[in-house]
Amino acid sequence: MSAEERGTPNESAVREQLRKVAGSGASSAPANGEHEPEAPDTERAAADGGFVDAPVGPDDDEANPGDVEKAPDEPGAGGEGDDEEAALAASDPLTDAEHQRDEYLVLAQRTQADFDNFRRRAAREAAAAGARAKAGLVRELLPALDNLERALAAADEADRGLGGGVRMVHSELVGALERSGVAAFEPSGEPFDPNVHEALSTRPADGAEAGVVVEVLEKGYRLDETVLRPARVIVSA
C-alpha cells in the first residue's frame, strides 16, 4: 500500500460514520414529541454556503439626520392655499346664483320704480292735454254764447217766437258747458282781482268804496280751477 492510499480515508468508512452521527442525533430528540425549532434561515443559508442580508432592526429604520435632506419650505405655500380656497368660493355655482339673484332683484326694483314714475307722469300729461283741448274748445264757443245772450236781451215782444228758439239753443249750450266742468261767474260788488277780472274802465264811486266791481260787461268762465276768460268789468274809482 502506498503512502497516498494510507493518508486518504476510505470513502465507505466516512459514509458509515455519517450514518452513525445521524442516528445518534435522531435518538437524542425530545421524548415528549416536541420538535426542536428549526434553525433560522440565516443559519441554513450559511450552512449551504450562501449569503443573506442581515435583519433590519428597529433602529435601522430611523434615518440619520445628517443623511436625509429636508425639503425646504416652499415660500407662500399657505398663501397659495388661501388663494385656491378663495377661487373655489368665488367660482361656487350657488354663490354666483345668489349674486345674480341680488343683481336682478335690484334691477327689477329700479325698473318698477321707473315705470311707476313714468305712469304717473304720463297720467298727469294726459290730463293736462285733455284740459288744454277742452279749454281751447270752450274759448271758441264763448263768443257765440255771448252773442246769443245779447240777442235775447235785445229781443222784443214781436220776436217772441224767434226769441224762444234762441233761448232753447242758449240753454242747451250752457248745459253742455256745465256738464264739461265750465262755470260762469259774475263778480258784481266784489273787490277787483286782477287774476280773474279784467277792468275795461272806471267809474266814480259816488260814496261807494273804491276798487269794487260796479258793473259786469261780460261774464267770466272757469274750467274747473282754470280761468278760461276773466270777467270784463267796470271798477269804482
Features of the shown structure:
237 residues, Nucleotide Exchange Factor Grpe, Chain A, domain 2, three-stranded mixed beta sheet, rod-shaped
Protein model, in words:
The protein is of the alpha+beta class and 237 residues long. 53% of the residues lie in helices and 13% in strands. Among the domains are: 79 residues; 57 residues, Head domain of nucleotide exchange factor GrpE (Nucleotide Exchange Factor Grpe, Chain A, domain 2, Roll). Helix 5 runs antiparallel to helix 6. The N terminus is likely disordered.
How would you summarize the topology of this molecule?
Blueprint: H1 3-7, H2 11-27, H3 41-47, H4 77-90, H5 93-154, H6 160-179, E1 182-185, E2 197-203, E3 213-218, E4 220-223, E5 226-229, E6 231-236
Parallel strand pairs: 2-6
Antiparallel strand pairs: 1-4, 3-6, 4-5
